[in-house]
Amino acid sequence: DSGVTQTPKHLITATGQRVTLRCSPRSGDLSVYWYQQSLDQGLQFLIQYYNGEERAKGNILERFSAQQFPDLHSELNLSSLELGDSALYFCASGKRQNTEAFFGQGTRLTVV
Amino acid sequence: DAKTTQPPSMDCAEGRAANLPCNHSTISGNEYVYWYRQIHSQGPQYIIHGLKNNETNEMASLIITEDRKSSTLILPHATLRDTAVYYCIVRAFSGGGADGLTFGKGTHLIIQP
What we know:
The complex is a heterodimer. Chain A is mainly β. Helices cover 0% and strands 54% of the residues of chain A. Chain A contains no helices and 11 strands. Chain A has strands at 5-7, 10-13, 19-24, 31-38, 42-50, 53-57, 64-68, 74-78, 87-94, 102-103, 107-111. Chain B has no helices and 9 strands. The N and C termini of chain B lie far apart (37 Å). The mean pLDDT of chain B is 90. Classes of the chains: A mainly beta, B mainly beta. Chain A binds chain B through residues 2, 4, 31, 33, 35, 42-48, 50, 55-56, 58, 88, 90, 92, 94, 96-106, 108, and chain B through 32, 34, 38, 41-46, 49, 87, 91, 93-105.
């Protein structure tokens, strides 16, 4: 158990819908990272927050957004969902002074 | 971040040492070598990282060549539970964790009984 909690574990929704994925980082971790893993793309970095502020952006679509709240949990919002958004979405957290990231068990999103 | 090259797959007998190579010939002086692994559909798991000295922890050893252009992850006594995709990642140390890790395709290590 990495200490990073992601909910829900599974999500099935229809095209065009909007969903919210939630992540609770390890205690004391200020950085939260979001990754997408699809069969054909591998693990792709989406976005990073540090202590409530956006720090880095990767291959995140404009239909996707995220935020980190004062209690340090984070949410990833996916809107206007398409079939190709079906994937595993991982959250990871890390401390300030090193870059070891600890991953949650992921949310499996299926868009039908 | 420097690019890494890993073999797509490897086999190893259970109980033997698994040696996973990684080439990173364009590594810069301030870049660390990180290893993660991912057991099927689970979240990636941090294994070890190093700059230029060899490192060892309870999971594995990391051997970095003197010129730092390649490294080897060693699992000393592989078990069936070590079957996973292993990712070698090179990145600069960043105190604020300024960007995410860049995962390549990794090496699929299969431990044979």
